[in-house]
Amino acid sequence: MLDLIYDAPAPKVIAGAQHDWELVIGLEVHAQVATKAKLFSGASTQFGAEPNSNVAFVDAGMPGMLPVINEGCVELAVRTGLGLKAQINLTSAFDRKNYFYPDLPQGYQISQLYHPIVGEGEVLVEMGNGTARNVRIERIHLEQDAGKSIHDMDPNMSFVDLNRTGVALMEIVSRPDIRGPEEAAAYVGKLRQILRYLGTCDGNMQNGNLRADVNVSICKPGAYEKYQETQDFSYLGTRCEIKNMNSMRFIQMAIDVEARRQIALVEDGQEVVQETRLYDPDKNETRSMRSKEEAHDYRYFPDPDLLPLEIEQAWVDDIAAALPELPDEKKARFISDFGLSDYDASVLTAEAENAVFFEQVAEGRDRKLAANWVINELFGRLKKDDKEIGESPISADRLGQIVGLIKSGDINGKIAKEVFEIAYSSDREPTEIVETEGLKQVTDTGAIEAAVDEIIAANPAQVEKAKQNPKLAGWFVGQVMKATGGKANPAAVNQLVTTKLGL
Ligand code: ADP
Ligand code: MG
Fold it and tell me: Which atom of ligand 1 is nearest to the CA of 177?
């Protein structure tokens, strides 16, 4: 299938360093569950609502209020786990993670420390250069999001918006299997793609619906392999955690600058201290935020308001049966069944909507031609107009008509672009456009021959030149195409010109 080199060597980090260093990265991705209501209340999760308008009493931590689990959130977490080929735990449980924060009115966050709903899985991360890596997923647990403190609305006061309080998050924890900044971004990209295919998280990073804590450490070559053999973390360097990253570009920049900071420290004989850091994109540096807290600092204990969560295998099986075709499988199918290149298949499967559109265009038609038209013409045109595939002014069926008309020889590639442009900016059917505008390709060799004869007769000097230099035949082809309004079959013209000039 895919000709990939797995476990490609980790890229070396060079920062004017005395030694070779390698990077080790593990990500905790927080993905907002795409349900309309929160994890333990019926309040809306709608983004951008009036501050504090989507808050149930339980979200505000009112005394005596009890959490009731949202079955929809559980279903989407299971669906996500299945999509990541992970183990689903039929019994999981919720714990209280206690800490004070002005935007956390309960005084604790309900999470799943000891018994997460999803166990080990994996994500295939392709680097687009023929290399790939399987990044292991350690666990996915469900937890509540916190609210938002707003410090920039008033010079003397801070405000609290509890709309986000209690919204369901899936925390997707990877093993430290990621080996460089680009890989980290590719991993987040792949995760985002899978979540969007599954419909379990909208992946909107700008709104913070997908964000990552990035754990970074450095080690000497060979140390990581020892860790892999033994799963003994002591072979790895001390990690720092960079909190709350919601941009692919910043993730890469933060890892790079953090790695350089750690290398400089260690080579200076100092030690990396395990801590939580923040990335400042303006200064391109990471800054210490707080020393790393351990699980025991939070006084985790099972939430007494919630029974352990028991789900049935039959329900999990139903969810599994309803899973859509996922990106890896879809891409492999496009390559093996349709003969598309790795690149074309990647582009067409980047978003589920792209793939659906492409398959409609390609249905019963030349797949490669359809792929070219979707990628080069349609995507190019949409990009120019800053439009999404869902807003395409030309439907898949109509683009398919154009592909069909080219394949049947009714129009040539050049005319097809004209037809595309007309169909794209009007509400007309390509077949009708070709009829009405008289754009049908002239394949009648009699008509083409007449045009060729005429041009040859009118340009004796050019004929002489072309006989010396056969490359000049192209000029005649151009003239004939012009004379026929671009509608002549280029192959037929070529053939006739060559014969008539005696080349
Ligand atoms: P915490 O919540 O305390 O940060 P978690 O277990 O939730 O701990 O997450 C730890 C994350 O750090 C995981 O993604 C893991 O892969 C990663 N990690 C652990 N050790 C290292 C290391 N030495 N270097 C880089 N990442 C690491
Ligand atoms: Mg963490």
Answer: 16
Mean pLDDT of 246-265: 94
Q: Which atom of ligand 1 is nearest to the CA of 295?
A: 3
Q: In this structure, are residues 83 and 93 in contact, taking their beta carbons and an 8 Å threshold?
A: no
Q: How far apart are CA 415 and CA 318, in angstroms?
A: 50
Q: How far is CA 134 from the centre of its chain?
A: 17
Residue type, 311: I
> Other CB atoms closer than 10 Å to residue 262's CB: what's the count?
25
What six digits make up the tokens of 370?
A: 């359809």
With the most atoms of ligand 1 within 8 angstroms of its CB, the residue from 142, 215, 277 to mutate is 215
* Token couple for 220: 């000497």
Annotate 265-321 with three-state secondary structure.
HHHCCCCCCCEEEEEECCCCEEEEEEECCCHHHHCCEECCCCCCEECCHHHHHHHHH
| Ligand 1 atom closest to the CA of 176, numbered from 1 | 16
- Which residue type occupies 275? E
Name the least confident of 90-94, 193-197, 436-440. Answer: 436-440
**What is the number of the ligand closest to the CA of 295?**
1
pLDDT in the model for residue 9? 62
CA atoms within 13 A on the CB side of 284: 7
Beta-carbon count within 10 A of 308 CB:
10
Q: For residue 104, give the amino acid letter.
A: L
Pick from 208, 290, 300, 219: which is nearest to 250 by CA? 208
CB atoms within 10 A of CB 164: 21
| Number of Cβ atoms within 10 Å of the Cβ of 141 | 22
Mutation choice for ligand 1 from 95, 122, 239, CB with most ligand atoms inside 8 A:
239
pLDDT tens, position by position, 14-26:
656 778 889 999 9
